[in-house]
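quick one
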Amino acid sequence: MTRSHTETAQAWLSGFQAEFTRKETDLAWLGALRNQARATFQKQGLPTTRTESWKYTSLAPLLDTEYHLAQTEEEAAAQPYVPSTEGFRIVLVNGHFAPGLSRLPQTEEWGLMSLYEASRLTPGRLEDHLLHPNLESGFSSLNEAFWEDGVFLYLNPAAQVKEPVWIICVNVAHQASISHPRLAISLGRHSRLALIEYHVGQGPYLSNIRSTIHLDENAHLDYLRLQCEHPLAHHIADIEFTQRAGATLQSHSFTLGGALSRISLSTCLSDAKASCRLFGLMLGQNHQHQDEHTHIRHAAAHTHSEEHYRSIQDDASHGIFCGRIKVEAGALQCTAKQTSHNLLLSPSAEATTLPQLEILNDDITCSHGATVGQLDETALFYLISRGLDPDEARALLKQAFAKTILDSIPNPALKDKISRLIQEKLGQPLRQGGAHVFFHD
Amino acid sequence: MLDIRNLHVAIGDKPILKGIDLQVKPGEVHAIMGPNGSGKSTLAQVLAGREGYHITAGEIRYEQQDLLKLAPEIRAREGLFLAFQYPVEIPGVTNIYLLKAALNARRKHLGLPELDAIDFLQLVKDKLKLVNMDEAFLYRPVNEGFSGGEKKRNEILQMILLEPKLALLDETDSGLDIDALKTVSEGVNTMRDPARSILLITHYQRLLDYIKPDVVHVLAQGKIIHSGGPDLARTLEDRGYGWLDTDQEVAV
Ligand SMILES: Nc1ncnc2c1ncn2[C@@H]1O[C@H](COP(=O)(O)OP(=O)(O)OP(=O)(O)O)[C@@H](O)[C@H]1O
Ligand SMILES: [Mg+2]
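structure w/ magnesium ion:
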């Protein structure tokens, strides 16, 4: 007997939905939001390969797994995965807030707290942010319906946060478990923030993250995400930016870990002079599957976007980059630039790159370019002919390929650390676990 | 130093080198001239160890070793250096990184201590002066955006830094202006040493005015068809290669 995909998704869901406990303690509006999300999920189901934007990513490995809802975990068990960072940070373990591992600020200017705390401390502000969710895929709906906890981060107008703020999501899974971290971030007018998101863990978990990040007028955000999930883990992330007039976003997405990773990152440049620069680097090994979909929407005149993604795929891994840019009819005099470069290191590795430009007016400047290639044999021989070890020469060329993305990281200390992390990953075989060791020096 | 006997090389099914014999003794400078497409670069690449060439017959001895059995990086560390006809651009790798990695690979192989950053910088700055290059070139990606002449100078910089025993210069003079030609030649001349051999591939007599060879060979259609003293280059400049082709046909 064949089941429809919504039935399949329902059956899959029934494995863990009974374990969900938060609902009883929710505020009324939050409970209503969850119910609405669950109803939406019932109609949507999970995406299938017949869904255009999921064409290259089969969810069979997930659907074949019986997940439990991730339970709270001793902080001590998560501690080894938490990098030593300076400044403020919030740590979620299995999707639950870990106060002992977090360092939260005490200030009027801005706030960083667990999402659940926020629903008690500042329900009005939170409601403003969470209301009217855009539940585009079944995963967003699931997250919205089942998040146990998450992060609420807000900056009051003109707040300037000096040190980078870290959001660290750790999963420690003893059995197949699913967590739904929900990140809600709001930058007031003329405020400024550097945010680093780090994903790491141990075991066969599925982390289904959803972030909504709002940049009010002239706010500036340096956003950097580092996906270093465990090799058995699956990482699904839906990141949704909205940018008001003059707001500027710089985003760096590093995808290194996980068996299956799907990141959907979108931004809406809703008012004049909003601009974004999106960078990405994917490194695939073994059978890793890495899918990144970006969507930039130019909804107003004089908005600007620039996007550079690179991918290095080895062994039998598959990297997918799909960059959608939509320029609305009224969005005159915009600029949009996109590049996607892909390096294949093995005959079984695969790279798919899909620029999707939908431009509804003539008064814009737009360019895009995509390449898929292999290591330059001539360059390799040149290096070796100078006495360099062939393995070293190969690692050097791979690093050189990644360099333009790394060089665009604005924070020098972070750039240095991530460069070394990438270097290590490109120079030697995949290590178990994440990059946490790396950040401990 | 170098002893090539009856070397036959094919690319795919196509024979390119058809029986090369060449002996170079320590301290000698040999020039190889010959028409376009005759196989000069092929010979240089085979000596450096590039893949994709089939050695169908013959042997090459370098310093009493079977050269063809040595991996290209070992050849380099053993003192064989090829200045490429077309130096390769490598975005994302800085010149100084390559220079230091190359020198230290060679030093390590020779059992010498590796140079640290400070000693290396001092050394490379001295060498830069010899080829009249600005220090800024050290921090640029290897050959990327270099002019033709700058690329050639950069090859010479690598050579004088690595102090090879056998230097192969594949048309290092092509595309140089008069001053650059002089600088490059001076760079090569500082390398002349009774223990070092140099093989110059060139189309022009002019280079040989600066670097006087001991022997000049003519390579045509995959064979050395003629060898002579330094005057041969001038004769070729005046008369071209036609008269030699005829000789060869007669000889066959
Ligand atoms: N990869 C290749 N595949 C097929 N033929 C090749 C390849 N590389 C070189 N050849 C051929 O081998 C022959 C010799 O080339 P080579 O580059 O050695 O000539 P050359 O003497 O250095 O010429 P030039 O003076 O123009 O530099 C040429 O006919 C060339 O087309
Ligand atoms: Mg040539």
